[in-house]
Design a protein that fits this description.
Helix content is 60%, strand content 0%. By secondary structure, it is mainly alpha-helical. Helix 1 (9-20) packs antiparallel against helix 6. It is globular, with a radius of gyration of 21 Å.
């Protein structure tokens, strides 16, 4: 018998993690919030999705969690968790209307929440919050049941194939759905995704900025995720190097991806802003610095972006002493090791020199 998939699992798990950061039991949390125990249990299990609350009640829940002492970084993940739950729910139930992946460009936090549910990989943003020891059958992560994961990826592949390519929503849907299929490590699924991505490799041959720049970038990074870094190296060389609009698009996208842009974006046009407005360079530098060790297959993209950011904002080494010291250590480890291209080595050496010279 097929059961209707739960659509609030990820948000419920984040809420539970926030409660445990207080720390409170479910009984104590229910008393503090003025609700019954069954309500808290329903929120945390996903059976009663938090996203279904009235806006004013959801706002009140956030405020109350903060006043109780819940970690602010965990509470801030509720939005990304609800986004991820909505994507999974719409895909599993084949909801009619505009798919969530066609509505907005999702961020790293949303991608990490999806990965948590689809692969069991704990988000790096929660690395400092070890999972408490539990008694009984309580799950250690919001990983979906195997049947639901298989159904999700099957529907996602269908969605990617059916997405129209003649409008911005369709292009965004196709790009983001196809990228997420790379999370499926089943051998047949990997072969399907690789084939689908390779049919788009013609995009990678184009130089500088084009209307398909974001699609080409997504193709290259997804192939890197599958173990083929060459298209990503080619993309850096052809679509960013010596092209101001391509370099700006990369910085704008990274700032958005890492949460440095306050407003959600409904399509990829924001990437073309050559003025590099709307985001804080220090926030981007921090995200790149502490993301370096979470970037298997993407180190060259991180390295080039770091170099481009320093080139655009040479004052950054004076912005934060502790941040710069951490970045110096990370660049030194990369330069002393291997696994990066010659271009990346030169660019990291340039960054390292600038950091040491200005600090």
């Amino acid at each position: 018998m097929t059961t209707r998939p739960t659509t609030g699992t990820i948000t419920g798990f984040v809420l539970r993690t926030a409660r445990e950061s207080v720390p409170h039991t479910q009984v104590a949390m229910a008393e503090a919030l003025g609700v019954d125990l069954a309500t808290v249990q329903g929120w945390e299990s996903g059976r009663r999705p938090v996203a279904n609350m009235k806006a004013v009640d959801l706002l009140g829940l956030r405020r109350r969690l903060a006043s109780l002492g819940a970690d602010a970084a965990i509470v801030a993940l509720l939005d990304a968790a609800m986004d991820a739950d909505r994507i999974i729910g719409a895909t599993l139930t084949c909801t009619e209307g505009v798919h969530p992946l066609a509505e907005w460009v999702h961020t790293r936090d949303t991608a990490h929440m999806l990965a948590w549910a689809l692969t069991g990989t704990r988000p790096p943003s929660l690395a400092g919050f070890p999972s408490p020891r539990r008694r009984g059958p309580a799950a250690a992560s919001p990983l979906l049941p195997a049947q639901d994961r298989a159904m999700f990826f099957e529907q996602l592949r269908t969605t990617a194939e059916a997405a129209p390519r003649n409008d911005t929503q369709g292009v965004l849907l196709h790009r983001q759905a196809l990228y997420l299929t790379s999370y499926d490590k089943n051998p047949e699924a990997v072969a399907w995704t690789a084939q689908a991505l390779h049919t788009r490799r013609g995009l990678l041959a184009r130089r500088g900025w084009t209307p398909q720049w974001a699609e080409a970038r997504s193709t290259a990074t997804a192939l890197a995720r599958l173990g083929d870094p060459v298209p990503l190296l080619d993309f850096i060389e052809r679509a960013m190097v010596d092209d101001d609009t391509g370099e700006a698009a990369n910085l704008n996208y990274w700032a958005y991806w890492l949460g440095g842009t306050p407003l959600p974006q409904s399509d990829d046009r924001f990437m073309r802003d050559r003025r590099l407005t709307g985001w804080d360079p220090v926030t981007l530098l921090r995200g790149l610095t502490y993301g370096l060790h979470h970037a298997p297959g993407y180190v060259d993209l991180y390295a080039h972006t770091m170099w481009a950011l320093m080139t655009a904002h040479p004052w950054l080494p004076q912005a934060s002493g502790l941040l710069v010291r951490d970045l110096v250590e990370r660049t030194e480890r990369l330069l002393d090791g291997g696994g990066i291209s010659e271009r990346s080595r030169r660019e990291l050496a340039s960054v390292h020199y600038l950091l040491r010279d200005r600090t």
